[in-house]
Amino acid sequence: MESSLTFEDLTIDDTLPALERVVRYSCSNIALQRLVHVKMMTEIAENVGYDQAAASFLPLLPYIVEDPEFVVRQYLAEQLAGLAKFFVQASPAHGYRVLLEALLPAIAKLVADQKIEVRTAAGATLVTCCNLLHATDIGQHALTIALRLAHDDDHEEMRMTAAGILNDMADSMGPDLCQQFLVPELVSLSDDPVFRVRKAAALSLHGIARTAGPSDSRRRLLPAYMRLSKDDMYRVRKACAENLPEFAKSVDEATREGPLIKVFTRLAEDNSWIVRHSALQSLGPFIATLPETAVSEELVNHFTSMAIDKETGQMQSEQELREKCAWAFPAVCQKLGPRRWSELRAAYRMLLSDRLASVRKTLAHSLHTIAGILTDIAEQELLSVFDAFLKDSDEVRVGTLKSFSSFLAHLPPETQIKCLPKLGEVLKTTTVLNWRSRLIVASQLALVCSLVPDANAAEAHLLPVALTLLEDPVLEVQCEVFKALPQLIQLTEQQHPNESDSALRKIIRDFSSHHSYQKRQVFILICVQLSQKVDRSRFKSDFISLYSGLSDDKVISVRIALARSFHNIAAWLREEHEVQVAILKLQEDSCYDVMHLAIQIDTTCLSERINSMSVCDDKLKPPCIKQQTCHFAESTSVHSPVDKNGITCEDF
After folding, report:
1. What SS3 state is found at 555?
2. pLDDT at 118
């Protein structure tokens, strides 16, 4: 009895090799030990190789398949998918025989398990194995497993499982096997006397229809689906409503336009409110499968009824319907286009006033998509919505912020400029702790700069935002801002072409001598961006001396950041004399981590003048001290050198 086990009984011998440990404890008397080690089988097999894995694991399968704990059997079913892939890939000939002779028989037993969790896992593994089988073996070794379940007249659970497996394996079967075996089996299951089997069949028609082809689907599967949609049991009709979009995508256009629209209309007016709600929830995705000309006013009215109650004209009382309507709104709007926006406007306005933040959040995330659909009328219809979302709660506002530039792209240029101050307004209303919102604002700066190349507007509205975020207490926010700095420098200098130095350049240069080492690290990262995007001569005059001069910084983390940056700067900058001097200094740095990073720099571009430099100059020569490995959060993982006494430098 496990309840009487002592601590010693539960202890695992960690001194055993991983393979031996899995073999021993997969058959342990303790269920938890079996569970833990069965989950490791695929990983261990990949580590030890084909021969050892096959010799050790295959004899265990008959025992684990019969494990008294269903969770162990479930995890074995999941592991068999990974083992099958490994065996076939590691040894195509022998591994394929293992798949046929050992793994598939185990899967066949698990797929007929009494527990649905085990059957579900084993069914997914069987579908995976179908993709590993030769076309000539699929019918004999995989299809027969599913057919045995489908013909089990004594256990309805097996027939239900068979419906799902047959649908999922249809792609692997190909059209011929699908038409010959899968279609008739699903048609038969759709006539099953047990409603739960018919329900499973209703949910499992789309994959087979897609593979069987439009002709066979229309001739045999469509009648079965339409019959199920009229079933006496409401749960079967509900399943038809849920699967309507997927089935529609699997049949031809004529079938979608004709019979399936009639099926939806009937389900949407069903006497069961559960069926009606399921039909409405599927309507958005179903409309997305239809040609634009086939979306009737009646269908649109059904869709908008998820937001506005038909009888009262007030907001729909069912929360789930309103959420589904908001989620599907972009797809339906795209299908109808701007000419039919008037049919959707009232429902959209009703959803905007929803008290549920989840509804408004969904609309906020899709606002830029709706703007792209409405094009010329986007400003008129959505600008006020844009303003309202930016003043909403954080979870709603974040959706609009993420697509700030994308939304502006669909507005006229003059309106784009009018919207720029809103970024600054967002910062003013964002709490110190809400750094993620500031990070989103920072990420939008570069995109907005590219979108609105107006120098005056950039200086007036975007530059203050950038300067504020450069002082942000969160380093990640600062690092996001400097991606926009090259564009901001160019835009502000266009505004003041006669000024030899801009305020932004001065602020950036001040970072190089800032008392905070993190600001000096940020300066290095900024220089990497500027070297690739701004005028070379201006970079040389403004930044190169300060940038390369950080090779003498007293803080090792700054020198590490500088050494890293040399790998990413523009090639022309790496050839500059001052940078070459800095590289040489770092290659002889007293900290091993700095030196290691600097040595890895491609020095083929170093000019010949380096060879003539007096590297023995006292200013370049590093102090003669014992080399040490320096460990910081910013450092990379490197191997430590060994000194002459055989002691690693990490010992000091």
Report:
1. coil
2. 97
- Asked if residues 21 and 48 have their Cβ atoms less than 8 Å apart, the reply is no
Alpha-carbon distance of 443 to 437, in angstroms, equals 10
**In terms of DSSP H, where are the helices of 193-291?**
195-202, 206-212, 214-216, 222-228, 234-249, 253-255, 261-268, 273-288
CB of 525 within 8 A of CB of 560? no
pLDDT in tens, 631-649: 343 333 333 333 333 322 2
Distances (CA, A) of 384 to 235, 241, 244, 378, 387: 43, 37, 36, 10, 5
Residue 622 in contact with residue 590, Cβ under 8 Å? yes
Q: Please check whether residue 275 is in contact with residue 240, taking contact to mean a CB–CB distance below 8 angstroms.
A: no
pLDDT at 651: 28
Show the tokens assigned to 259: 């019979």
Structure tokens at 254: 């004529």
Buried b / exposed e across 279-294, counting CB within 10 Å, b at 16+? bbbbbbbbbbbbeeeb
Can you list the residues of the chain whose pLDDT is less than 50?
A: 1, 605, 607-610, 612-652
Determine the pLDDT at residue 647: 28
Output DSSP code: residue 133: S
Over residues 349-387, the pLDDT tens digits come to: 999 999 999 999 999 999 999 999 999 999 999 999 999
- Beta carbons of 58 and 98 less than 8 angstroms apart: yes
Q: Which residues contact 44 (CB under 8 A, 6 or more apart)?
A: 18, 19, 22, 53
Using DSSP, how many helices (H) and how many strands (E) does the chain show? 47, 0
At residue 628, the 3 state secondary structure works out as strand
- What distances in angstroms separate CA 38 from CA 27, 31, 560, one per listed residue? 9, 10, 44
Q: Is the pTM of this model over 0.90?
A: no
pLDDT digits (tens, 9 = 90+) for 282-323: 999 999 999 989 999 999 999 999 999 988 999 999 999 999
Compute the C-alpha angle 131/136/137, nearest 5°: 60
Token couple for 464: 């203050």
CA distance 445 to 527: 18
Amino acid occupying residue 119: R
Q: What are the angstrom distances between the C-alpha of 255 and each of 208, 219, 252, 465?
A: 16, 11, 5, 55
Helix axes 463-470, 485-495, angle to 10 degrees: 140
CA dist 291 and 64 (Å) reads 52
> Mapping DSSP to helix (H, G, I), strand (E, B) and coil, where does residue 642 land?
strand
pLDDT at 483: 86
Tell me how crowded residue 602 is: count the other CB atoms within 10 A of its CB: 10
Task: State phi, psi for 353 to the nearest 5 degrees.
Answer: -90, 5
pLDDT at 219: 96
Handedness of CA 528, 533, 535, 536 (dihedral sign): positive
DSSP letters for 57-122: HGGGHHHHHT-SSHHHHHHHHHHHHHHHHHHHHH-HHHHHHHIIIIIHHHHHHHTT-SSHHHHHHH
**Residue labelled with tokens 């076939």:** 88
Q: Is 101 exposed, middle or buried (0-12, 13-18, 19+ CB in 10 A)?
A: exposed
